[in-house]
Task: inverse folding
């Protein structure tokens, strides 16, 4: 049983295809990183669709699926679409997105037309419509794969060679022009690399899904890095991993398409990255917000205990939760949780449902009240806000002020004794 | 500090009969002036008076309808390494994944070191530039994490790393804090004292007088240029900031909305003769 379900792993054509899709995906991801940063994702998608008529015409010309002919056709038709988009954008009143959409649909429409013709008339070596639309990775012969893989390596090498210039061109093209870099040459080069990457990539995933191969790895990788070099490495890694995983999955069952599986893997990684990436992901940000919210609640509870103590003239007394509500309105249900956290941190002591500051808790409460009153002082003295206006403005600031800012505040205000409401400012006992 | 002799006696920057249009709308009409070396020059004028367009024309970033620009008596392409351009801060995406250091390194890129890595000397110059603007400790930060003032300092450091003789800056004082304003001004004054020339597009009249040695007062046409006391007069300021040139802007509208050319064909070649014939 084990043998039967595992035999496909040792299939040599599987690893050939995996290696091919790996190179194609990685090269598309590396070049696509720049497309992504130049905010030209839609242009990439349009070029991918626009390659279809070129491929079809090349096939009609050569009468077979010769990789060199197909690449040539793809390059010409991809470049034509780029030039046309640029021209429509500059010379007509069409907006950028309209120009992109029109070129995409016209080229794609012509491509489908030609493919339909080919399918009805071609004899002998039949090329399926689906192969071009959704990729033909699994059907590739080793000879083709060597050519495509070699071209992919050339593409990666060219991007590395011009890395420095492409970085500047994508970040600040006007500056590049001002220092006399051959900006037009670099633009044409980078565009050509993009068209070539797309032309190669459609062998693996097809015209329709090509934009995913170009853009998704960079979009996912951007969540993990603030540096271009690291971003490109990570996106190459993501693309390569997805290519191999996608190929393995598609070979594990009969007549499963390789290209779509690669794209599915890519998309899953990209989605997970958006949610889970450390620091920038949505989850990390949600956790951060919750942490801040809890800190604010905890500090407000401590502050309420302190105010209570001030009113009763005894900071060391035991108070119940009912007393707390007399000082400040809290959202329903948050107090018990905050109390539990404060007990765990050792900021409060408990005795039969009554609470008292611990020494650390009292210090912490003093710090919060001090920051609040210092800030009120600052607003009053420096911003000339009236004493009766400053309280709501000062609220929440005490949770944000760092020790450095506190030191600066103290210095600027010269260690005041009392705040604008004449309440004493508590320093360390 | 010793004053470096630039060894160049003529005008550092000469703008000759320059006319230019933006989106087919004429924004500069026949601008004509010369700037001497070793001064801080402000290009001053109200919003939409063509200040940025003038700078972009000088840097060859857009094509003039007529006229020409000479830098150190030569064409821009012959003296690129002596000229540094600082674009407006808002002209780039600050979320771009590069560090402060990488941006300043761009000031060392040259057409002749295409595809090559920067050398040790380049890295030293980058360090020095970062130190001069007080950004060395932020060198590894991603540029999006900086404040507006710090971002402007990064752009200034990139210009310093270029080690040029003429600096052209587009609104370097917009959206910066007081500390950065002082720091930038200090760096620019040092450059001037070393015999370098700094040309700054600036829209704020309040500060213009105290910042600059000379001024080019602009409002679509050249109102006045020269030492600040000569330019900063009630009459000139009134002329630049006061009444609009209603007829001119109406004409501009017509040119922009219809298919009229801004300059007639053949005018460029014969402009000398035509002027003489007048």
Result:
């Amino acid at each position: 049983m084990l043998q039967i379900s595992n035999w496909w792993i040792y299939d040599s054509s599987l690893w050939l295809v995996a290696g091919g899709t790996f190179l194609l995906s990685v090269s598309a991801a590396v070049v696509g990183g720049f497309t992504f940063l130049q905010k030209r994702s839609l242009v990439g998608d349009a070029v991918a669709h626009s390659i279809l008529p070129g491929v079809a015409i090349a096939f009609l010309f050569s009468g077979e699926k010769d990789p060199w002919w197909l690449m040539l056709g793809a390059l010409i038709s991809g470049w034509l679409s780029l030039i046309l988009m640029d021209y429509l954008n500059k010379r007509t009143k069409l907006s950028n997105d309209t120009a992109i959409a029109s070129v995409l649909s016209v080229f794609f429409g012509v491509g489908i037309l030609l493919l339909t013709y080919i399918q009805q008339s071609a004899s002998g070596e039949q090329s399926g419509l689906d192969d071009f639309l959704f990729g033909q990775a699994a059907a590739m012969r080793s000879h083709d794969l060597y050519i495509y893989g070699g071209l992919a390596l050339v593409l990666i090498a060219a991007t590395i060679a011009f890395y420095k210039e492409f970085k500047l061109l994508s970040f600040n093209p006007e500056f590049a022009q001002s220092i006399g870099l051959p900006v037009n040459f670099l633009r044409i080069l980078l565009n050509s690399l993009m068209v070539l990457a797309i032309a190669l990539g459609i062998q693996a995933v097809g015209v329709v899904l090509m934009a995913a191969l170009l853009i998704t790895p960079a979009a996912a990788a951007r969540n993990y890095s603030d540096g271009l070099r690291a971003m490109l490495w990570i996106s190459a890694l993501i693309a390569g991993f997805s290519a191999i995983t996608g190929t393995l999955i598609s070979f594990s069952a009969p007549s499963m398409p390789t290209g779509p599986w690669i794209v599915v893997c890519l998309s899953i990684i990209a989605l997970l990255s958006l949610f889970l990436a450390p620091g920038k992901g949505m989850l990390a940000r949600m956790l951060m917000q919750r942490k801040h919210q809890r800190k604010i609640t905890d500090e407000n509870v401590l502050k309420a205990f302190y105010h209570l103590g001030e009113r009763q003239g005894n900071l060391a007394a035991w108070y119940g939760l009912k007393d707390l509500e007399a000082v400040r309105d809290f959202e329903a249900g948050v107090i018990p949780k905050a109390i539990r956290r404060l007990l765990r941190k050792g900021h409060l002591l408990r005795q039969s449902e009554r609470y008292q500051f611990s020494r650390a808790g009292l210090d912490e409460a003093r710090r919060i009240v001090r920051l609040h009153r210092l800030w009120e002082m600052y607003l009053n003295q420096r911003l000339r806000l009236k004493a009766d206006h400053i309280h709501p403005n000062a609220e929440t600031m005490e949770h944000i002020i760092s020790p450095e800012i506190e030191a600066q505040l103290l210095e600027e205000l010269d260690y005041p004794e009392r705040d604008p409401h004449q309440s004493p400012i508590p320093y360390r006992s | 500090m010793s004053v470096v002799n630039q060894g160049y006696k003529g005008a550092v920057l000469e703008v000759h009969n320059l006319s230019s249009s933006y989106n087919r709308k004429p924004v500069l009409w026949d601008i004509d002036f010369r700037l001497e070396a070793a001064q801080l020059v402000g290009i001053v004028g109200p919003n939409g008076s063509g200040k940025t367009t003038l700078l972009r024309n000088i840097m060859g970033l857009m094509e003039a309808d007529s006229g020409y620009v000479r830098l150190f008596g030569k064409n821009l392409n012959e003296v690129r390494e002596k000229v540094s351009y600082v674009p407006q801060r808002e002209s780039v995406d600050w979320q771009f994944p590069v560090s402060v250091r990488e941006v300043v390194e761009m000031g060392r890129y040259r057409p002749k070191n295409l595809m090559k890595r920067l050398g040790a000397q380049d890295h030293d110059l980058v360090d020095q530039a970062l130190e001069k603007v007080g950004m060395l400790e932020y060198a590894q930060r991603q540029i999006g994490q900086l404040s507006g003032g710090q971002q402007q300092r990064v752009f200034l450091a990139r210009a310093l790393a270029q080690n040029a003789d003429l600096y052209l800056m587009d609104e370097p004082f917009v959206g910066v804090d007081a500390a950065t304003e002082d720091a930038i001004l200090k760096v620019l004054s040092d450059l001037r004292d070393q015999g370098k020339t700094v040309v700054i597009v600036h829209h704020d009249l309040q500060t213009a007088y105290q910042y600059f040695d000379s001024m080019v007062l602009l409002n679509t046409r050249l109102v006045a240029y020269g030492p600040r006391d000569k330019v900063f007069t009630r009459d000139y300021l009134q002329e630049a900031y006061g009444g609009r040139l209603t007829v001119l802007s109406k004409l501009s509208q017509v040119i922009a909305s219809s298919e009229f050319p801004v300059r007639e064909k053949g005018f460029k070649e014969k402009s000398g003769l035509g002027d003489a014939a007048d």
Remarks:
- Residues 284-357 of chain A form a domain with the Arc Repressor Mutant, subunit A fold (CATH 1.10.10).
- Strands of chain A lie at 348-351, 354-357.
